Amino acid sequence: MSHPDETARRERDHATPDASLASDKARRSEVLRTFLTLGLTSFGGPIAHLGYFHDELVRRRGWLSDKAYAELVALCQFLPGPASSQVGFALGMVRGGGVMGGIMAWIGFTLPSALALLVLALVAGSLEGPLASGVIHGLKLVAVAVVAQAIWGMARKLCPDLRRTCLALLAMLGLALAQVAWAQVGVIAMGAVLGSLLCRDDKAASVRQHAQAAGLSLPVSPRLARYCLVAFFVLLLGLPLVASGSLVDIFYRAGALVFGGGHVVLPLLEASTVETGQIAADTFLTGYGAAQAVPGPLFTFAAWLGAGMAQVGGGSALLGAVIALLSIFLPGILLLIGVAPLWGRLRARAGARAALAGANAAVVGVLGMALYDPLWTTSVLSRTDLVIALAAFIALTRFSLAPWKLVLGMVILGAVRGVI
């Protein structure tokens, strides 16, 4: 029995050019509608997003096989950037016949939360008084609980043995000693180097067999892949030279160096924005807390920051949000397109997988330091705050409370605390 995608491709190959073009447009419209629905309803963070994608697009719609989806998730977790958004972009390419389908998927999945955070950023400055202060403090405590949950889950998965636990602790120590903006990048690179030496295993053959069996195939030409890889590195190395400290430079670098999920962007952006005086710490943490309340990718936090940073500099909030949003997502998409044709061979290399294991362990350490500073030091200011943050953490981890429900409850609690 033919897979639905194979049948559709055969029909399209035998269709007239006009019919084929119409079919491509119809598929891309379908991709946009489908991901817009997901962008409006996908609460719960990147792991939950991957579950939504599998249920809707693999199980129900049959856009690709379970094995191909598993391999796609592995590829996107291997690369820097927002894994769930990269998976969504790739699914859009599969269904929409190429990069334009991926762009439709990205727009649909990203637009709802980006617009919500932009609107919140525009009205946040007009909110004053004890009520607003209480709400903002409640959002900051949400951020403490959510990052603590992320560290707990990532540590159990990414630091399962003594070697990787030591790498995470070494990363925390390195950040505590080196108070510079590039320290996070340095400790992740250190983790990759040490991981390549200490975290090797003997599973290369089975991984190679799995990669071949999965049959993951993205509609990416070798030439386009090469162009995207060149563009990724040219921008990463060139922007600090020609546009250092600009919105494009800050957010592109953050998107290019984030391993381990959206929460890891917190320390990278905090070092480049708060510590350089481009945005206030309270504004930064309030936005991060608000980002937990909206569906879609956590990277849309960039829209809040871009709008706020543009307003501080006297520029357009809308333009700042758009620049920040495009800049933080672009590197992950360039890497996905560039590496897709090489993935099978790359993942089969024991050295590459060991380096990734070490980098991921270092990421846990980076998040651990971010939990302490700036989150804990600026948010947990009393014993009551400690009890509330601990209760929020237990609600997330023990009772699996949806983050948006926690945000709603903490906003109400913060408002009550602010006026009494």
Task: Note down, in words, how this protein is organized.
There is one protein chain. This protein has helices at residues 4-13, 17-41, 46-60, 66-78, 83-96, 99-124, 129-158, 162-177, 183-198, 204-214, 222-242, 247-256, 265-273, 281-291, 301-312, 317-339, 343-347, 350-379, 383-397, 403-419. With 420 residues, it is mostly helical. The longest helix has 30 residues, at 129-158. The termini are far apart. It comes from Cobetia amphilecti.
Cα-atom radius of gyration: 22 Å
Low-confidence stretches: 202-214
**How many helices does DSSP assign?**
20
Distance between the termini: 67 Å
Region (Disordered): 1-25
Pfam families: Chromate_transp
Protein name: Chromate efflux transporter
InterPro entries: Chr_Tranpt_l_chain, Chromate_transpt
Which features does this protein show?
transmembrane; 420 residues; transmembrane helix; membrane; mainly alpha
